[in-house]
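Changelog entry: the DUF1048 domain-containing protein record was regenerated in this release. Current contents:
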Amino acid sequence: MDTESNESKSRYLKYLELVTGPIEDKRRWRQYKARIRQLPENYRTAVEALERYLMHFGPGDGADAASMFEDLADLFERSAADGTPIRDIFGADPVEFVEAFVQNYSVGRYIRRERERFTSAIERAAGEKEDGTV
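Regenerated structure tokens:
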């Protein structure tokens, strides 16, 4: 896009980020994906499966998600370098592993808001006050 001034370009970028989300988060995502492509095949397969799971159940905010995926790449790069077996990373229950991993990151605003709305509705339905007392 050819703009007449830096101000126009700035407005264009602000509009673009409003529609697509922060450009910085997208750059971080591309860097994460490039790092994952460098992993040995079995580690890459495990990360991609974990990534699919996290897309549904992980943090919803861009910055938190970006940090989480960067940490995931760090974990698997170190594990591959050390030769740590996949099962030693995940343990016997992969879901337990991922749920513990996700606990280190805040839940996205939308998910947090819906959880609070749900909890509040149940408290009202049960005739409880905000602090859980009857």
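DSSP finds seven helices and no strands in the chain.
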